[in-house]
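Quick illustration, no need to memorize.
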Amino acid sequence: MVLRTETPPTVTCVDKELNGYVGFANLPNQVFRKSVKRGFEFTLMVVGATGLGKSTLINSLFLSSIYEDEKYPVAGTPNKTVKVQNSTVYLVEGGVSLKLTLVDTPGFGDAINNTKCWKPILEYIDSKYEEYLNAEGHVNRSTVVDNRVHCCLYFISPGHGLKPLDIEFMKQLHEKVNIVPVIGKADTLTPEECVEFKANVMREIENNDIKIYQFPVDEFDEEEEAQDLQAQLPFAVVGSNTMLDINGKKLRGRMYPWGIAEVENPDHCDFIFLRNLLIRTHMQDLKDVTNNVLYENFRCNKLAAVTSVNLDSKLASSNRNPLAQFEIEKKEHQERLKNMKAGMEKVMEEKVKEKMSKMEEQKNELKLKHDQALKHLEKMKKEIEAKRTELRDAQKAYDELQLASGVTVNNSTSSLNSTKDKISSKKTKSTKKLF
């Protein structure tokens, strides 16, 4: 028997010169117009302890009051749990609209015991991946909304190195999201301290095998330029929303008795590098890495787990006879029905309890209003009775005063009459004497 092997045909690609204008060179313009019309989405997460200037830096990055004046918690009452809060703003620049979703994590690192304080953040990121995965399974996939976290700015407190919480957080999330380490309030460090602190942070990141976001090399003309930009990590930044007038020049910065820390001055901080790489040059790459690497890893792990469970069940069922398999499936079906019935009863019971609690609350509220109305009525009765008593006393006093004034008038009238009589009698006597 002779086996014959066939070699696949080779495909050769030859560059052809066109004799005229065809039009496919206009494809980038078509993509551009469609993208501008659709708009862009970007989700940015900020994580760090309270007081590191996260809100101020975000406002400085996007030149907008995205975070209004915050109400800081009262001293001595720190947040016991980490909360994940997201807010969406719509920004327009040069006809290009951006739906920016900011994810904040108040309470992170503020508690005395910070064990597993990153768990709510990890669950939030996984939930957004899960939502996107479920949306991809729908019939209509044209309306899939991308709420996945594309970048995480992790704020590091200025000091001498990373804290155990910093290392553990980045190790837990470096395979879920693009982490960009940032040194908050870098104006508290001298230039020498800043360089030393950056080196210590990067050394600890490498020693702990933490994967932070790597800026792609192919987007630059030279590899050395990309390496120089990568060398700026972690970015030491200063945020400020105050515009200062220095010798007629408007600039954003912070004024101190010993000088000015300019936000957009590369000699003072790395704000310019962070803004350029995060927004102006690498925003799309952050989205691509999230979609093509991080999300694909999550998707593969999720589907692999489901496939392995199905495979195990199929292998186990293939070794049974049909009657036994039928009995097992019947029991499983009855168990599912039982669970569904128990779940529905539980839901109904919870709804009844909720309704009863609402009715009880309404009853208590009505009773409270009734008691308040009775108290108010009783109070009004007492006030009316008091005014009635006061009026009676006033009437009695008035009557006594009238009576007293009447007696006085009568006495004065009688005395006046007696005086008149005396005068008339005297006149009569004097007249008689004359005659």
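The two ends are 196 Å apart (CA to CA).
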